[in-house]
């Protein structure tokens, strides 16, 4: 009885076409949502009208100058995977959560959008991993460093930034 039931079920399932997942290219599909990749900048077969563009490139500054300007102009700058409201990595999420504990204004750039930016940040800081956090122009480190500093030293570093933000409001 069980064998005939299982054979009957197999025949029914065999009648349906197999559900094949769509072809997945690197970072093109995420949880059923289509994401547009920016990792095809030099593909000669891609027409220039549909080739991805970088907002950073159109600014007229080199990526090294953009990173330098970001760090100089923003009291708390984080280069991360994703954005503070939607981190794409556990380490980036941890760093943002720790920084938000102090109510400091966070400026961020998503390194997943531009591989060249990612390399420029690595060259600027001489540090290979992300997130990378800069406070008052000084490279602090990643989420592990921020977490260790959370026990006291970080409060001192962010104190003037938070106080200045309160005066501006």
Automatic annotation (TrEMBL):
Start and end residues of each Glutaredoxin domain: 76-140
UniProt keyword terms in alphabetical order: 2Fe-2S, Iron, Iron-sulfur, Metal-binding, Redox-active center
InterPro entries: Glutaredoxin, GRX_PICOT-like, Monothiol_GRX-rel, Thioredoxin-like_sf
Pfam assignment, any one: Glutaredoxin
Single GO cellular component term: mitochondrial matrix
Family matches, as CDD domains: GRX_PICOT_like (cd03028)
Domain of life: Eukaryota
Recorded family membership: Belongs to the glutaredoxin family. CGFS subfamily.
Protein name: Monothiol glutaredoxin-S15
Organism: Physalis pubescens (hairy groundcherry)
């Amino acid at each position: 009885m069980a064998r005939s039931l299982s054979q009957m079920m197999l025949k029914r399932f065999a009648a349906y076409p197999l559900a094949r997942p769509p072809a997945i290219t690197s970072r093109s599909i995420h949880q059923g949502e289509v994401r547009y990749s920016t990792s095809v900048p030099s593909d000669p077969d891609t027409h220039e009208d549909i080739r991805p563009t970088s907002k950073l490139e159109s600014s007229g500054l080199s990526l090294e100058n953009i990173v330098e300007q970001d760090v100089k102009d923003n009291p708390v700058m984080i280069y991360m995977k994703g954005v503070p409201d939607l981190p794409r990595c556990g380490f980036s999420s941890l760093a943002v959560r720790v920084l938000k504990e102090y109510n400091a204004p966070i400026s961020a750039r998503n390194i997943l959008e531009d591989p060249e930016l990612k390399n420029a940040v690595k060259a600027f800081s001489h540090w290979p991993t992300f997130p990378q956090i800069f406070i008052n122009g000084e490279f602090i480190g990643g989420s592990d460093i921020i977490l260790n500093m959370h026990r006291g030293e970080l409060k001192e570093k962010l104190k003037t930034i938070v106080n200045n933000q309160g005066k501006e409001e």
